[in-house]
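Quick one, T. Sequence first:
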Amino acid sequence: MASASPAASSRWQRVRERLLAVAERLRPFYPALRIAGFVAAVAIVVVMGVRAAGEVDADELAWWPLPLALVAAGIWWVLLARGWSIVAGGRTSRHDVSLWCRTQALRFVPGGIWAPASRAATVEGGAAEKLAAVGGENVLALCAAVCIGGVGMGLGISLWWLALTPVLVVPLLAAGALRGRVRVTPDRARRGLVNYGVAFSAYAVHGVLVQLAVSGSVDVLAIAGAACLAWAAGLVVVIAPSGIGVRELVYVGLLDGSMPHAELAAAAVTMRLVMIAAELGVLLVAGRPAPAPASS
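Structure tokens:
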């Protein structure tokens, strides 16, 4: 048993050396590969947008809230990208924002892991650092969405939903317990939570405006809360690419009985279309390949 560990370590070292050699050979092609990745990301988002548009009945929509919803969704998307930048690098960086925008399109690929896995590959350090970066990003976003969703549902439907709000302290406690061992420091966790809190406030506004476009009048708090909790459910169910189907089902289920089922379903699908349109706009502006930061 004692000889197994050195042998395994030696094999891993050989694999690592080969991977580094391949990366070094590919280095001259990195600019072209980044451009190709950007083009592929745009193509994926466009295809998903066309599919979503085919499920929306434009004749049933009031159009005036939709441009405002698009702006709110765009703010949300930019802040999600900024959240990754804060977690991974400790500051807002064009390179990290651009990387997030391009890799995030991979969430539409079945499997649910390709977007975070592709970002993890760019994080310096060992497996623990890579896992901490992508895990921290997702946990911070999830807790912010659940907290805001709990507040909305609690004030709009039932006070019992307020029991979800303490989830906000989970990433802070985790960052404190792991202080000095991973890149998600307590300071990054605090700044990340503030960033994601603003992000999902914008997401909630987007949900309210879309439902308003469909229904004409809405319960603002209930819609805002259900939209955020539905997003959180889609994040947790990783087998559904980008939460497709899951978020729509949860959104309708949370609000069932408070509004006509058809209106809720139409709004759920329209929300996805607006989100994809916002993603495409941000990708075209902020997702263009940026120079990699100089290594210190």
